[in-house]
Amino acid sequence: MSSDTYIAQLRTLLDDDCLLTDKDSLDHYGKDWTNIKQPAPLAIALPKTTEQVQALILWANDNQIAIVPSGGRTGLSGGAVAANGELVVALDKMNKVIEFNPGSQQVKCQAGAITEQIQQFAEDNDLYYPVDFASSGSSQIGGNIATNAGGIKVIRYGLTRDWVQGLTVVTGKGDILELNKGLVKNATGYDLRHLFIGSEGTLGIVTEATLKLTRKPVNLTVLLLAIPNLDSLMPILQQFQKAVDLTAFEFFSDEALEKVMAHHNLACPVQQRAPYYCLLEFDAASEDILEAALAEFETGLGNEQILDGTMSQSQQQVEDLWKYREFISETISGRKPYKNDISVTPEKITKFLTGVNDIVAKDYPDFEVIWFGHIGDGNLHLNILAPEDMDYQEFTESCEQVNPKIFTLLQELGGSISAEHGVGLLKKPYLNFTRSDTEISYLKAIKHAFDPKGIMNPGKVID
């Protein structure tokens, strides 16, 4: 059957102007932030209802056409890439808040709602949606659920998984499932909701979500600390955790700070530069909490685990101090960094960082390395910058040759090759460093149960 015939059939399943076939749209919707392959989808479908999503999946099954679900396309693993004639199903037009229950502090929304939209909705109702990251202004709730997105508040609030209390999904077979229905307690067998969270669109498409909200934090306060070495990281974290309830504990290198200051024309936030920096955020609801944090700061200065630091005195200063951490990805993006998003349990952070630094120094002696991450939950971002005069393909191949060394160390420490960006295309060759062969066989069985014809996001996560 010709592509023109397919297009004609698809138009009958959607509202007017909800099927895009122009080159600009195919290019825009056919890739994510990785830009690893030239997009070449069949078409872009923009459904408005769960039933239209179901109709598209049933059509794809009948015609054996692959589907690539598309959210905000802010992923960094190639999970939303459509390069082989797939039908991209984008949920941009499914972006409404459906229901709000102030008593149970729940909001039900369509999966195309932007993360920032839900954060603002919570704010408008004197509540808080704490899942937060740099792409919150463009990422969609459905995409966050599909990748179990984390971000900067995980140490206090957990991952997306911890805030999803119900899902409506369309499976790869075309069945509509209502999962958990917003219940807090539901002891009736397997919770299929959790299979879809983090599934990267390989089992079906999330169309609606019921999300839990919580109270707003009071007087968020930031401490930015200059520290002399990696050995100081965990003692600082442990001591501050005893004193205050941290909402974030971030880490970045002096190389990262230097690039952010130069790119954004920012002043140095501390008087004494150091090899590494920590950014701590906590809910300072009382003077006692502030005094406890300052006492830990003074203790760190006294035992030389902290060299210098600064504390926010206003909401504007909170936002200004966060810039030194949040601007890192944007600042280095022009250098096309080769990224590894990895994690170990927090107590193994120092050992892992030291080991990777040794590998990088030996194998990348001429490459710039930028470290940052959500170190409070064990998540690190290793960014290797391409030399300006080096062919990018050659650079990528060079980085890939060292991946097995880094991932072997990760495996020895019981870590993960992908902490929060997903597996997608880029990490699939390395899945066995985190998952055993037996686990992968179970993943494949689950995939087959929900998507027996293999049409949902094929080639991603597992074969």
TrEMBL record:
Residues 37-216 form the FAD-binding PCMH-type domain. InterPro entries: FAD-bd_oxidored_4_C, FAD-bd_PCMH, FAD-bd_PCMH-like_sf, FAD-bd_PCMH_sub1, FAD-bd_PCMH_sub2, FAD-linked_Oxase-like_C, FAD-oxidored/transferase_4, Oxid_FAD_bind_N. One of its GO terms (biological process) is respiratory electron transport chain. Transmembrane segments: none annotated. It comes from the Bacteria. Its cofactor is FAD. Keywords: FAD, Flavoprotein, Oxidoreductase. GO terms for molecular function: FAD binding; oxidoreductase activity. Belongs to the FAD-binding oxidoreductase/transferase type 4 family. This is FAD linked oxidase domain protein.
